[in-house]
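Board notes, transcribed. Complex of a protein with beta-D-galactopyranose.
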Amino acid sequence: MKKIRLSLFLLFAGVSFSLRAQNNHQSKGFLATTPTKPVSFFEPGQIWRDNNSVPINAHGGGIMYYKNTYYWYGEHKIAGAIGNTGQVGVHVYSSSDLYNWIDEGIALAVNSTDPRSEIAKGCILERPKVIYNKKTKKFVMWFHLELLNKGYDEARSGIAISDKPNGPFVFVRSVRPNMEQWPLNVQDFHKKTVSKDIKKHYCGGYGCLGGDVDSLNILGRDFKQGQMARDMNLFVDDDGKAYHIYASEENSTLHIAQLSDDYLSYSGKYIRLFQNRYMEAPTMFKTSNGKYYMLASDCTGWEPNAARSAVADHIFGPWKELGNPCVGKDSEYTFRSQGTFILPVQGKKDTYIYMGDRWNPQNPIDGRYIWLPLNILDGHLTLKWKDSWNLTDLKF
Ligand code: GAL
């Protein structure tokens, strides 16, 4: 009996040592100390440590709430410029209070060295989001995917699935959205023959198409192969229908596309909105009075810019722009961050947290998280800087 106890002890000690060693390795550049003391505040822009005292590594992230627990999924970044590519995968953390996070490990790994794998090590995997499908009882992850060594040209969406919130997730496939489907608000000229010259307008998607997107008809150009999708988010409505919101048409135009009932493909219903506005980093939520709000950024790569916001009575519009919700110093730069998710706080009616990333493209692992209370005043979103705050500061 003693022997069994001793070997069990050694086994656990070994597992815990190797997990720590792995964490130390993953957090290269940071000193991992003893387990963190519980905290009860947010400090935007400061290093935020997990239960092992390792800085949380979940960038471009999103949160799913399931059985009294919040799960935070995000891009696991490593040190140095190579960290801008997918070297590890999607990291997941869990929390019951939003301040203290337990490292649940890598939910979706990108460790294949086979260059034919769509999620080969070194691909670009950004802005992963997870939603739970009550009908199929599966956890479904979507993310922006760029295939290995193709820069940002492919503009695909990856889909992965799991039986458990903390994974492991299994990669299902990647898609270009809405292949051979016209949006609900398609216009006649989109269906006309597309000029062969359009290719010359490729510009990498930084707001430099050099012409009105409708006159270039990027939508028509991509009809057969499916639409482009880069920065993205997911939203589940009260009726269980889920939506994929993504920057399309060379980043010039957002699309809101309804997913199929299993959340693994599209229903075929989608709209395009904010043409020529080059909105990125879209995130959507719905208030108790049935209004849909959207927060997005301008299109300036890793550099911060002024956020945009919009409201609608119906998810498929019409959407009305409301302007930059930020107030005070650095409001033109969204407090040096770019949005990634709006988190509804559970058990508190109409209470939302803005989650943003302060990117650090030279050393991506040291990107910081900017979480701030998001208020709705007279139908407009308002975001103000706070050095430190907690959930009791959320007043509605
Ligand atoms: C940002 C985008 C990020 C990443 C970056 C690459 O605009 O929001 O997710 O794609 O560009 O430059």
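Helices lie at 2-26, 213-216, 218-221. The pocket of beta-D-galactopyranose is lined by residues 60, 126-127, 231, 280-281, 301-302, 338 (CB under 6 Å).
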